[in-house]
Structures are given as structure tokens and as C-alpha cells.
Inverse folding.
């Protein structure tokens, strides 16, 4: 079946009366196709729009999805969900003020987005975790260009493994990501978790995020031609207790057990701690970068190995440091 909508408004969709679940503004599945040109989906439940299943396709152009509320069973109010092999093309889509995540791409789905804006995603109401702008995982594929992820929580862009997950982002602004409310940690611009082997972030601006501009945990990828500027601090209590050891997190790029991370021709400016921090056997190529300010240009904890050449360090207290006592919190947990 095919649905085509033009200049439509879907408002206040309610969940099922008995279960309290569902309530999407538009749901596409089982090989159906839906195209929406100019529309708004507002104050629905669970997801503003969702598309699931191999052969299912969703096309959105100049669409606003906002203020999606949580359903009863899993407390999720995502703006846009694409999964289980579905495909989507997004042009000029705005996701604003949704809950838990702005956009999720999972389970071998594939999304191409140009001019996407994901703004002010709120954490999950029940426990105040998550609130990321975009989450990609489970072998899904996301191609993102000319887009902005701003004022979200925990991470602007979060990717995780469980399959050949791939993210390619070009010309993207990731800015002002806020702390995860429950832990007072993260607020990272872009975070790649265990299993991710193909994330590319090129010619993008990561501005005023918290804790780290870009972070890798047991993941591989490339950051090239980006500017990572003014990462703000995040006070983290190791052990969680009130009297636990506190540390101020603020690094441009963190590779924690990174498998094969390449940082090339980036500008990393005004972090509080390190331009590049390697932790626990991370393997990083750091080539042709400019790092300015902070305590350290490059710092290692444990047995991190960095191949560095052609870099310029300015204004740091120390260009290179080993075992500088810079702790990092555990990696964040993606949504199920």
C-alpha cells in the first residue's frame, strides 16, 4: 500500500485504552510506502512516526515532529523510529522536544538525512536517563549531511554495535549537548560504543558539548577535518556515593579501548583537560591536528598507543603526558 500526504497535521494521538501503549502519529510497516510533504506530527505517544520491516519505506520532506509523549510500558516518546530493515529519506525534517531520543535507527534499517535538525530532546521521565539526539545501532546505517543536533541530553549522536552499524556524517553541527540528568556525566557530542567499526565524522563542528567532544569505547572510526571547540566540564563521582572521588571531565577526543581510531586534520581548541585522551589499550592515529589550550595535548592512561605526526600543540601545560590520572566514567547504555 502507498500513502501520500501533503500539508497535513496529526495532533494528540492517544495510546490504546487498555494497554496504554502505542499512539504514533503515523506507523508504516509490512512493505508499505509513505511520503509526507510538509506536515506536523505533534503530541502523540511512543513515536511521532515509526517505520518497520524490510521493504517498508518512509519519505519525509519539510516535516515537524514535536512533543511526543511517553507510552505506558517502556516510557519512550521518540520523535522518529526506523527499524527492522526499513528505509527512510529525510529532507528538512525537524525533531523538537521529544522524549528519550529524537531519531532512532535500529535493526538493519537504513536512513539518509539532509538538513535534519534534532533539538532539545528530553530524558526518559521515569529515571531521567537518555535524551540523545540520534541513536544508531543493531547493524543499521545512517548517512547524515548538512544537519544540526543541538541541546539534546547524554549524547548528540550515539552509535552502538550488535552488527555492522555504519554512520557517515558530513557537515554536521553537534552543539550544547547536556548532561545525562541521572548521572551528571556524558553530554558528549558523538559517542561510538562497543562493536561499532565504521563511524565517520567529517568536516563537522562539535561545539560546547560536555565531558567529551567525540568518544570511542571499544569502537573504531575516523574523525577528519572537524573543529572540536570549548568542551565544557562535567563533574563525575566515581562510585556514585556522595563522598566518592570527583573528577572534572572535559576532553576533546577520548578513545577508551579504541580498536582503530583515526584523527586527522582536526582543530581541537579549549578543552579543560586533554585534546586527545587514550585509555586502556586504545590504538589511535593522530595526524595533522592542531590542539590548543587545556592541561595536555595528548594524554594516555594505561597502555594506550598513539601514532602521532605533523601535529601542532599550542598553549597546553604539557604537550604529552602518560598516566596523568585522568579518569573516565563507564560508557553510556543505549536504549533497548
Amino acid at each position: 500500500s502507498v500513502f501520500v500526504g501533503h500539508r497535513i497535521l496529526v495532533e494528540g494521538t492517544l495510546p490504546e485504552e487498555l494497554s496504554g501503549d502505542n499512539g504514533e502519529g503515523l506507523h508504516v510497516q509490512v512493505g508499505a510506502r509513505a511520503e509526507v510533504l510538509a506536515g506536523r506530527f505533534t503530541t502523540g505517544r511512543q513515536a511521532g512516526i515509526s517505520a518497520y520491516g524490510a521493504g517498508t519505506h518512509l519519505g519525509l520532506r519539510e516535516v515537524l515532529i514535536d512533543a511526543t509523549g511517553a507510552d505506558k510500558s517502556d516510557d519512550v516518546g521518540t520523535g522518529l523510529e526506523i527499524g527492522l530493515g526499513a528505509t527512510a529519506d529525510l529532507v528538512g525534517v525537524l525533531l523538537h522536544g521529544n522524549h528519550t531520543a529524537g531519531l532512532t535507527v535500529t535493526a538493519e534499517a537504513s536512513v539518509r538525512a539532509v538538513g535534519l535538525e534534532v533539538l532539545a530532546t528530553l530524558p526518559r521521565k521515569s529515571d531521567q536517563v537518555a535524551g540523545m539526539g540520534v541513536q544508531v545501532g543493531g547493524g543499521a546505517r545512517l548517512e547524515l549531511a548538512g544537519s544540526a543536533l543541538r541541546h539534546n541530553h547524554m549524547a548528540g549522536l550515539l552509535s552502538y554495535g550488535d552488527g555492522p552499524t555504519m554512520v557517515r556524517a558530513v557537515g554536521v553541527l553537534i552543539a550544547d549537548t547536556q548532561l545525562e540528568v541521572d548521572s551528571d556525566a556524558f553530554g558528549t557530542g558523538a559517542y561510538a560504543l562497543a562493536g561499532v567499526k565504521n563511524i565517520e565524522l567529517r568536516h563537522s563542528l562539535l561545539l560546547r558539548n560536555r565531558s567529551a567532544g567525540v568518544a570511542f569505547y571499544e569502537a573504531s572510526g575516523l574523525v577528519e577535518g572537524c573543529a572540536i571547540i570549548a568542551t565544557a566540564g562535567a563533574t563525575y563521582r566515581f562510585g556514585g556515593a556522595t563522598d566518592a572521588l570527583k573528577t572534572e571531565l572535559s576532553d576533546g577526543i577520548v578513545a577508551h579501548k579504541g580498536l582503530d581510531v583515526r584523527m586527522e586534520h582536526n582543530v581541537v581548541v579549549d578543552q579543560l583537560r586533554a585534546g586527545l585522551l587514550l585509555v586502556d589499550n586504545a590504538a589511535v592515529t593522530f595526524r595533522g591536528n592542531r590542539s590548543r589550550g587545556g592541561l595536555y595535548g595528548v594524554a594516555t592512561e594505561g597502555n594506550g598507543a598513539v601514532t602521532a605526526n605533523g601535529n601542532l600543540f599550542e598553549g597546553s601545560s604539557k604537550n604529552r603526558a602518560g598516566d596523568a590520572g585522568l579518569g573516565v566514567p563507564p560508557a553510556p547504555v543505549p536504549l533497548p
